[in-house]
Amino acid sequence: MVPNMFQSILKYKKYRYLKLSLLSVLASYILYLSQGSSQPANGGTLQGYILGIFATFLVLLLASLGIRKRKYSSNLGKLQGWTSAHIYLGTSLLLIASFHAAFQVGWNIHTLAYVLLLAVIFSGFYGLYTYLHYPRVLSINNTGGTQNTWLEEMGEVDDKIKAQASSCQIEMRLFVLSALKNTILSGNFYPQLRGKDLSKIREQSNKKLIPNKNQQRIIDAIATAIPQSMNQAESGALNQLLTLFSRRQRLLKIIRRNLQVRAYLKVWLMFHIPLTVALMAALIVHILVVFIYW
Amino acid sequence: MQDGRYKVVIIGSGPAGLSAAGRAAFYDNKSPDSQKTHLLLESFSSPAKTIYQYQKGKHVMDEPGFLALRSPMSFVAGKRENVLDNWQQGINKNQINIQFNSEVVKISGEYPQFVIQLKNGSSIQSENIVLSIGLQGNPRKLGLENDAESNFVRYTLEDPDEFEDKTVVVIGAGDAAIENALGLARNNKVHIVNRRNEFNRAKEGNLNAVLTAINNKSNQFYCQYNTNVKAVNLPDENNENGSIVLDTPEGDLEIACDCIIARLGAIAPRRFVESCGVKFPNDKPTSIPDLDNNYQSNVKGLYIIGALGGYPLIKQAMNQGYEVIEFINGNEVKPADHPLLEQQFKLLPYAMDAQKVLDLYQQRVPMFKRMNALAFRELIIESNIVIALDAEAYQETSITQKTALTSGFDKLTNLIRSGDYIFKQGNYSNSFYTIVEGSVELIKDGNKKFTLKAGQFFGEMSLLSGRPRQASAIASDDCILIETPRKIMAKLMNSNDEVADGINRVFIMRALQTAFNPKLPPKEMNALAGTIELVEFKAKQVIYNQKEIGNELYLIRSGTVSLSKGTEGNKLVTYQLQSGDLVGQMALMGNSTRQHTAEAAVRVEALKINKQQFLKLVQSNPSQIKVLQAQLSQKMKKSNSIGSVVEASKTIKFLLDEGLGEATNALIINENLCVNCDNCETACAETHGGISRLDRETGASFDGLHVPISCRHCEQPHCMKDCPADAIHRAESGEVFIDDSCIGCGNCETNCVYDVIKMSYTLPKKPGLFSWMFLGLGNGPGEDLDAKINPKDKELGKKAVKCDACMDQKGGPACVRACPTGAAIRISPNDFVNLVDGT
Question: Which of B375, B506, B531, B821 has the fewest beta carbons under 10 Å from its own?
Fold first, then answer.
């Protein structure tokens, strides 16, 4: 449910920036079509230059979002408006830049700038997708809780597991504690992104760490041990442990998924921003080259 | 002594009596004959019984700080022992004629021939009598079964160290209760029971100490607020299994304890005083005898000073002792706080002594007329005097004002231009105004509503409900107002029932006027208002249940009420109502079966209006019925529309459960739009000295709506109570903020039930954005958790920080402005319905 007091970035101010972008594309297209009487469509015609200047202006405007975002006292519009404009004007740049280049490509610095522009825009599209899609995924995954509440609960569950484990036989106890010790929440950014569970467990018989993905190994071991237990106290503890590890399994899933989705929400910026910097550099060279070889 | 008759006999050797006797002794010592014309009678075996009975080592305070001491006896704040030693020395040095173990049983005769009878049968004659017997006589009882003084139930505590490893319940919120509780807390587990929700009767030092003790989680020191004592269960023969049952906002609570110490104040030894012919203004137990400015009662020659006269502070009592002897000796003397009053009245157009102005003002205002002259004096000293002048006079007077301000005056009369707004509708200011001269116009929605004249007051709605001003107030020419801060008014209402009743009565009349617009003559209206009951509901308390037969409606005075349908477990909240709204009017306007269950979302105060009262109100102005009907249909439409969407009603329930019913401006995040970038937190830190006042992630969520940990700017801010430095204010536009006078005590952090205040050092200034972006200086925008605190800031200590809703930021709240996806918005309870409507 998106209550009507909220506006999504796409619908911001009744699609104000979509309308603006469509207008810009339309104007650029007319300008593009108006070429060709004396010279074929090209970046070097008068229209080509105008389109080039306009595209450069747009690139600068779009890049300045990075500054505006960090100017926290700025009264120059709401950041949401800037983001909405960034999306629509960025998309329109795809066409405007193409009109400027008149769809000519080659193995040169000009096409490099064009390709970088496309890369920036498409990484932005992926970013937009993540922004539109993943917040809901996160919200559903969290079911009203937060990463901190899950981590806190994990701590409590682990304490209870340790307490229950003390009533088990030594072998099971060590196995349980090893499962706790060798649980890997996330690791670095890449494993976070992959959401892969690298948790391990040490089997006392061969002293080697073996995978304990999804806590499955330990859950299986406890479930197997329950019917075999002769001791009533231990059997009770094992039952408790099974319940606790099931909860732990669920918590780990939620936490890992949170980390993964948050990584998705960030990872595209790792392309989008460096590509933008590269684009700016290429753009400067492109402009210089054009003027030098006038 | 002449003809066996003293000039003055002072009864009671407390601070007031000692000081009076000291001054009288001064005159005796000065006179050539060695005759003593004064006598100080004390029923106990040593002077200052009350202080003598204080616990050992108790710190005696010398509030109020602004007041100078004028007495032959010395007194400075310090240990009980030092204070008593000083006084003993004073008695010797001044050669005070003191007679111990002399309890007075009867006073007869009249000026100048009073006869004082002592318990031992002897009698003494005197021209004048000064009664300074204090209030300690009769401690107030619990008023329950089993409340007789015993080892288990006590009304005094001499030595807290006689208790060790016990559980003790201390009842009361005054200084005595706090001091006992703190003394006991050294070696025992202590519960302190406060009938109210703050310790606003306590002296500043005690207030700080008790709150520090409550804040300190490692102490076994607990406070029960808003709690009354329901029952006392005496222990068995072995002194075991005693307990106390408390009526708390969360329900009954039984605490097993070893001892109950009730410090509920004392009742004036009224019967004795009355037997001397002294009259009291009413029958209320808190009533104080009528005194003139020279502390003389209605019995000529009989003076009453100190706590018995309504002033319980030591310094004031001692000053009164001095002043009363001066008066008896025929010397005009101005009270010690006289210069303060002079400053406040300085710019008023009177050539009158400040005392005369004070008397005049008290007579002008019916509500204050019967107040003790001394209490009124204190009220004025704590208030501002405001005068509205025409342009020319304003110009002239403001020059005088400027000169005076530069020459050391610090509390001058306030000036405004006539025709100026005193406050505007929608403002959140909450001073209380009393008109002493001229008139004030109240204007609601552009229409003139009332003209108030001298003697009337206004601002009671905001004072009582915590909501914005319901109307604008404009001052007329030469209008003079007493502007009393909310804190002082709340204190006065707590300690003076007459003022509380007066304000409540007018509140009821005006609230009825606003809600029903009746056309009743003022007399009838007043009589009707007198019959209306003011009721209070705790948070989560049911006001009425669905399907009940209802005979009354409620007009909300403060708090939020939720309406719901269905039974527990399957309850659908369909509406919420705030102060000024009517609840349950449908039962009186058609179907008498309640259609909803009404529940208090937070603590609610409401006026209960029954059928007869309602009919009287609406029948006096039948055209209003249409208006009420239209309001009701509007409410029914909305409520049914929400009720038809299960999700919407669950969301409202969630928001109310999160306490947003008392919010005025809360941050809400739509989880389906939030990309977890934390730019809101960064923006908050960047616009507020590097410290974020919001925690985005923590906090509850429901169905995609998230309530982060961030200030909601409550209607009646919990943080504002018990701020000793008076550093927390509410801006006219509603923001609750902390100013630079914060002393870092942490009371607000403790009192905030939403955990949105934190204590923090001032952080060093960070390198600018471009230095970070291009030179890599600093850690970039946002809160720097590893910031190195300047030694100077460390010394100043941590101060309380909280959201101020960016009141100084032009564009409004930075958190909302900085959200790239529009997930963050700020809402008030009025928006809840919009928030869920039309989804």
Answer: B531
Measured between beta carbons, which residues in chain B are less than 8 angstroms from residue A142?
A: 671, 701
Please provide residue B750's backbone torsions phi and psi, each rounded to the nearest 5 degrees.
-70, -40
Cα distances (Å, whole numbers) of residue B200 to A211, B172, B193, B405, B616: 63, 12, 14, 31, 39
Which residue from B675, B810, B825 is facing A5, i.e. has the nearest CB? B825
Q: And the tokens for B730?
A: 């509410």
Per residue in B154-178, pLDDT (tens digit) is 888 877 778 888 999 999 988 888 9
The ipTM value here is 0.92
In this predicted structure, what is the pLDDT of residue A207? 79
The reply to whether B315 and B407 lie within a common domain is no
Same domain membership, residue B807 and residue B669 = yes
- Decide which of B264, B281, B310 is a domain's last residue: B264
Count Cβ–Cβ pairs < 8 Å, chain A vs chain B. 120
Contacts of B827 in chain A (CB under 8 A): 5
B86 touches chain A (CB under 8 A): no
| Structure confidence at residue A2 as a pLDDT band (50, 70, 90) | very low
Question: How far B682 CA sits from the closest chain A CA (Å)?
Answer: 8
Nearest to B372 by CA among B284, B482, B455, B292: B292
pLDDT above 90 covers a percentage of chain A that reads 68
> What confidence tier does B736 reach under pLDDT thresholds 50, 70, 90?
very high
Cis status, amide bond into B47, omega within 30 of 0: no
Asked if B472 and B421 touch (Cβ cutoff 8 Å), the reply is yes
Residue A4 to residue B819, Cβ atoms within 8 A: no
Tell whether B668 and B736 lie within a shared domain. Answer: yes
> Does residue B839 sit at the A interface (CB-CB below 8 Å)?
yes
Q: Which residues of A touch B683 (CB under 8 A)?
A: 72
B177: in domain: yes
- Quote the tokens at residue A10: 């796409």
Q: Are residues B297 and B160 in the same domain?
A: no
Q: Is any Cβ of chain A less than 8 angstroms from the Cβ of B414?
A: no
B490 and B377 part of one domain: yes
A54 has pLDDT over 80 = yes
Tokens of B86: 């000083």
Give the strand pairing for B38-41 and B98-99: parallel
User: Residue B435: pLDDT band by 50, 70, 90 thresholds?
Assistant: very high
B637 and B678 co-located in one domain = no
Strands of the sheet with B552-558, listed across from one edge: B533-537, B604-610, B552-558, B582-583
| DSSP assigned state of B719 | G
Angle at B30 between CA B29 and CA B35, to 5 degrees: 50
- Whether residues B21 and B105 fall in one domain: yes
CATH of the domain at B419: 2.60.120.10
Q: Using the 3D structure, point to which of B477, B495, B513 is the last residue of a domain.
A: B495
Which residues neighbour B584 within 8 Å (Cβ) at sequence distance 6 or greater? B543, B544, B550, B552, B553, B554, B594, B598
DSSP B607-619: EEEEHHHHHHHHH
pLDDT tens per residue, range B184-210: 988 899 999 998 888 877 776 678 788
DSSP secondary structure code for residue B380 in this structure: H
pLDDT at residue A32, as a whole number: 94
Per-residue pLDDT for A4 more than 70? no
In this structure, of B329-338, B446-455, B493-502, B628-637, the range with the lowest mean pLDDT score is B493-502
Q: Is residue B349 part of a domain?
A: no
Q: Which residue has the higher pLDDT, B141 or B89?
A: B89
Q: How many residues does chain A have?
A: 294
Residues 776-835 of B with CB under 8 A from A: 781, 809-811, 814, 816-823, 825, 827, 831, 834-835
Return the residue of B nearest to A85 by Cα.
B820
C-beta atoms of B834 and A4 within 8 A? yes
Residue B402 lies in domain: 371-495
